[in-house]
């Protein structure tokens, strides 16, 4: 029986992608056949991969699922990220389903015209992966506890449901105008209608929380309280990321958290940059010099007004110790010595074609 481990988060940029990639490699090294999965991703950083369904042999997925597939030592396919939204600016995104662009949509247009098709595509992709693999490591999106989104949260709540056998058709009666205070009831009713008993569930949830910005214990407690009961019962444990310092200092807080919630803290990960590509350029800080200033080369990337697959522009420089890379609203000039490089989004696109994440 294939199990799904959903790596969910208390917020965006807490380290879900990295934790999921690490689990893919760890489980693969232990002899399991692993498949990464993200039901819905929003990212302009994508990779071209094989498409097992559809009329075209190739499609695109978010870079995180590409990296996770490489970590799992499996060939990346569009099933690993069946729904991809690529922001275009002005409240509009390109909708990519099963690797192929369908339309440019607003948020309302997506949920009004494409939502049920997107959920069905994600569920079908999960089913195909479940037939061929031992474990599916699914990555959530943002926070798993957004009361206003619980009735249409494809990457988190919906993924947990159809991993437990709740088919999209059983959720067709869920109205788009469900109020936040009703969301918990909607989630629980959907599970009662189609899922098996708790003992038979095929999905576990690992909750990832970031300590770097402070407030990690409040984030975990608040997230657990806001989660639908059906999801909260699936939480196997918590992982705290981006920790600096001595673990001993953290122990009293961990003991208090476990006492309050009954959920164990399974690990505390130190702050480290594994050199993996980010999904979005907003998550990329300007790199700091790790080389003497008089010996370091600098590269400045102009920030385009509209970004599309531009995140990789700084990736090679970020991994080169003698290079610093920053993004600027103005073009680089000759005075930006010792070395300056100005690359527009057009030239970045050409470079991206040859850049490899792993």
List the helices and strands and how they pair.
Layout: E1 3-9, H1 16-29, E2 34-37, E3 40-42, E4 46-50, E5 58-62, H2 63-71, E6 83-89, E7 92-97, E8 100-106, H3 107-132, E9 135-139, H4 154-163, H5 183-194, E10 203-210, H6 216-226, H7 229-232, E11 235-243, H8 247-261, E12 265-270, E13 297-302, H9 315-318, E14 323-328, E15 342-343, H10 345-352
Parallel strand pairs: 1-9, 1-10, 2-9, 3-6, 10-11, 11-12, 13-14, 13-15
Antiparallel strand pairs: 4-5, 6-7, 7-8
Helix pairs in contact: 1-2, 3-4, 6-8
Provide a concise account of the structure shown.
The protein is an alpha/beta fold and about 350 residues long. It is about 30% helix and about 25% strand.
Helix content: 25-40%
What's the count of strands?
15
CATH first level of the largest domain: which class?
Answer: Alpha Beta
- The figure for the number of domains is 2
The geometry reads as globular
Main sheet properties: 6 strands, parallel
- Strand content of the residues, in percent? 15-25%
Task: State the main characteristics.
358 residues; alpha/beta; Rossmann fold; 2 domains; six-stranded parallel β-sheet; 15 strands; globular; disordered C terminus
Q: How does this model look, in words?
A:
The protein has 358 residues and is an alpha/beta fold. It is built from 10 helices and 15 strands. The protein has helices at 16-29, 63-71, 107-132, 154-163, 183-194, 216-226, 229-232, 247-261, 315-318, 345-352; strands at residues 3-9, 34-37, 40-42, 46-50, 58-62, 83-89, 92-97, 100-106, 135-139, 203-210, 235-243, 265-270, 297-302, 323-328, 342-343. It has a 6-stranded parallel β-sheet, sandwiched between helices. It has a 4-stranded mixed β-sheet with strand order 3-6-7-8, covered by helices on one side. Strand 6 and strand 7 form a beta hairpin. The longest helix is centred in the middle third of the chain and has 26 residues, at 107-132.
